[in-house]
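Amino acid chain:
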Amino acid sequence: MVLVIVLLPTAGPIAEAKKPRPTVWVALEGEGRLAKVVLGDGVRRRVDTRGGGPHNIAVASDGTVVAALWASDRIVILREGERTFVRLGGAPHDVKIARNMAVVANQVSERVQLVKLDGTFVRRILLKADPHDLAIDPKQRHAWVTLEGSDDLAVVDLLHRDRPVRYVDTDGRPHDILFAPDGRLWVTDWAGALHVFEGRRARLVRSIPLGVEAHHLDFTPDGRFGWITDHGASALFVLRVGSLRVVERIPFPGEPHHVSVLPGGRRVAVADHANGRLVLYDAATRERLRTIPVGREPHGVWAVGS
């Protein structure tokens, strides 16, 4: 038996698929637009929000973008390239995603509102004071909400219409709020501190003094570090999640607002509200890498996939 081997010509080595570049969405409060920023390329797309002062922003796992239009009574939903405006009354300030819904903290109207990502209104939940910022618990069953002029947190049941809103006293001035990867609740304080709570009844674990006016926060995906902006102090604070100790205070060249840790945890993007740019940091060394011009008064920042 004769074995014949035929060598076929090839077109060269198989090209490796390019990994998608990290993408960040930014709410440009001073322009009435949302900006899609691809790291390495800069702004790739701008979405007109018909004014409205886009403030806080969130991106769902399917890529749907939702922004609270604080200077109007609407939110905007960007899904598969199409814009949907949903009129809610009041002044929508913060938005988060839970169970295929946008959960909206609506100032002036003292309520949280639920809207499906296709724009269908679900329901409203009345509060005892105007909401400011909110966080969704890890099981996506409750929204924890900071209140204007109150030291309480409102706990809103997202699944049961008949459950009353529960309030938790903090003895502070809650500003922004986010669950850490270890399940504890981090709350920044208008007076410059960070308060960390745990459990259903939000038992205070520790209060850590930071700067002047602690603003917004995010965590590295490995759960080891939290980044907090302080607008009044023009600084960023990096804390170790386990020990709740400040490991570094970073001077910021402008007015830091929202912060978002990019997927993979190597880069951190911070909105510089005063100078119309994103400032990019190395998460490990905490060195400033570069700035990316985005437009007037960037506020909300959300890294896709974070």
Notes: The chain has two domains: 52-163, 170-306. Residues 1-16 have pLDDT under 50 and may be disordered.
